[in-house]
Amino acid sequence: MGILQLGKDLSSESLSTFSELDATPLHYLIEDLKREIDAKDTLLQGKTESIVQLEERVTVREKELHRLKLRHDSASQERTSYEKRIEHLQEALREHDRTIEAFRQQNAILGQQLEDMSETLQTYKENLRRTVEEKNNAEDECKNQLVTICNLRSALEETKRNGGASIQQLHDVIQTLQSEVALLSEHLNYAFRENLAKDAELEQYRDANLQLRCQLAELNRDVQELKDIVSLVDVRREIALVYIVVFN
């Protein structure tokens, strides 16, 4: 701007000097030069303003690029985090698959155990029924033996009242009565032992039946827990698949 002003001053002084000398052609030349200088000065000023605007735009773009870089870095970090989460979810899915397979195998084993226990329980019930029948038969036999003894006693009393009976007949009745008493005693002892054994066996059957029922209840609870776990695993599997689909 100082050079331009100096040019203007020189032009003014020269114009004044040449005006005095009446140098008209040079005056026009200086005027043209002055206009050209003014035009270039205006053009330079416009270029300067354009440069300033461009610098401002460059600054804005640099800021935008910086923000975009920050967003890109953040997105890269998020992507890395999501990829790690996806890897963890995939591993969790594989672990869930292994868990489900183990649960299915365990469920099959429990089902087989449940079936075996049901058959065992049915066998216990059949044995219990036979034991009760045998006990009832033994009691009936004891009752019959008691009736026989009563009849023999009655016959003995009748023999005693009949004085004409022979000693041999009385001896035979006594022998028969003793035999029946011994047989009855043996039957009673056997029935007593059998009753004790059957009572103990019945008690064992009752205990076994109770244990089987408790085990059946536990198996039913285990099966229900397995079903709940499988349902929960299926839900987690669906959620993991959604994550994988969304972030891939």
Number of separate helices: 3
Q: Structural class, from helix and strand content? A: mainly alpha
Overall outline: rod-shaped
Unreliable sequence segments: 1-23
Radius of gyration: 61 Å
Taking the sheet with the most strands, its summary is: none
Word description of this protein:
- This protein is an all-alpha fold and 248 residues long.
- The protein has a domain of 33 residues.
- Helix content is 96%, strand content 0%.
- It has three helices and no strands.
- Helix 1 packs antiparallel against helix 2 and helix 2 runs antiparallel to helix 3.
Structure keywords:
single chain; 3 helices; mainly alpha
Summarize the structure.
The protein has 248 residues and is an all-alpha fold. The chain has three helices and no strands. Helix 2 packs antiparallel against helix 3.
Indicate the topology.
Blueprint: H1 2-20, H2 24-161, H3 167-247
